[in-house]
Amino acid sequence: MNRILFAVALLLASAAFGQAAANPEAEVKAAFDAARATMTPGPADIKVANQAVLHLPAGFVFIPTNESVRLLKALGNRPGMDVAGMIFPQEQQPGFVVVRYIASGYIKDDDAKDWNADEMLASFKEGTEASNEERRQRGFPEMEVVGWVERPAYDAQTHHLVWSAEARAKGGQDNDPTVNYNTYVLGREGYVSLNLITNASTVEADKPSAHELLAAVNFNEGKRYTDFNGSTDKVAAYGLAALVGGIAAKKLGLLAGLGLFLAKFAKLIVVGVAAAGGAVAKFFKGRNASNA
After folding, report:
1. Taking burial as the number of CB atoms within 10 A of a residue's CB, which of 46, 53, 81, 257 is the most buried?
2. Other C-beta atoms within 10 Å of 199: how many?
3. Would you say residue 291 lies in a domain?
4. Are 51 and 101 spatial neighbours (Cβ–Cβ below 8 Å)?
5. Strands 178-186 and 191-199
6. What is the C-alpha to C-alpha distance for residues 69 and 85, in angstroms, rounded to an integer?
7. Which residues are CB-neighbours of 165 under 8 A, at least 6 positions away?
8. Strand blocks (E) in 174-289
9. What separation in angstroms does the CA of 59 have from each of 32, 41, 87, 93, 174?
10. Residue 200 lies in a domain
11. Dihedral (CA of 274, 28, 183, 150) sign
């Protein structure tokens, strides 16, 4: 194991949250063992919160909810109640995906036609700067949004939303910051979020996989966006733009959704632990056939 890498990542993550498990290295290893024992390799159909089906393609493995939550917590994150699972590539690639279902209610998408990406970015930057005061009080590093990795794009036919912004520690010198590449599928009662955690240097190579996974999600009959009944169904208190601006900005400081920047520490721990088996891909390939 690359103990230096692991120790540095663990120190950073522990300092960021002001707490550490009694034996964090052992817990991360145990969490990976549990994930490996319960993972499902593609191709396979994965139920997502009894709302949708993820047609997991070959080349990926899916980790169930309980084991994903345990793994995220072991890596220093506070995953919340909406985690549906995690997806790892079977090949040696740095990125991984956190899958969530958020029961927001029906999100109106009519504001997408009036989007101004430049104004959205300015608002995103302002909101991030305004929240730096809370970060300072909580002992988190201040952050800044640098720009779009991918400008917000919404497909009204498929009800898919994609966007990504680059954020980093304010004044930081990280030449290869972590990137959250966010993709969403809207449904009748909420939405499925697939959040790819990767690096600025690898995000372009990872985008095809992110879009492949996005296209692999289908809501069940009766739960689709087009099944909405305006006389009976709950409507979300916010529109589509909030998935790009307000909600995302809130996540930045709290890491409730693997927030930008601090997720880098989590990924470093993933790499450090998996190095014992020769990388994340080899770690997960090592499962027993009886766990299929």
Report:
1. 257
2. 17
3. no
4. yes
5. antiparallel
6. 8
7. 121, 124, 145, 146, 147, 148, 149, 180, 248, 260
8. 178-186, 191-199, 217-219
9. 19, 7, 10, 11, 31
10. yes
11. negative
Q: What DSSP element (H or E) covers 119?
A: helix 117-130
Quote the number of domains for the chain: 1
Q: How far is CA 32 from CA 40, 185, 273, in A?
A: 14, 28, 9
Q: d(Cα 86, Cα 225) in Å, to the nearest integer? A: 24
Strands 96-102 and 191-199: antiparallel
* Amino acid present at 218: N
pTM: 0.78
3-state SS, 214-245, equals HHCEEECCCCEHHHCCCCCCCECCCCHHHHCC
Q: Is residue 151 part of a domain?
A: yes
The string of pLDDT tens digits covering residues 185-239 is: 999 999 999 999 888 888 999 999 999 999 999 999 999 999 999 999 999 988 8
**Which amino acid does the sequence have at 75?**
L
What letter represents residue 117's amino acid?
A
**Residue in the structure block whose two tokens are 């990125």:** 95
Determine the structural domain holding residue 117 and report its residue range: 3-85+98-285
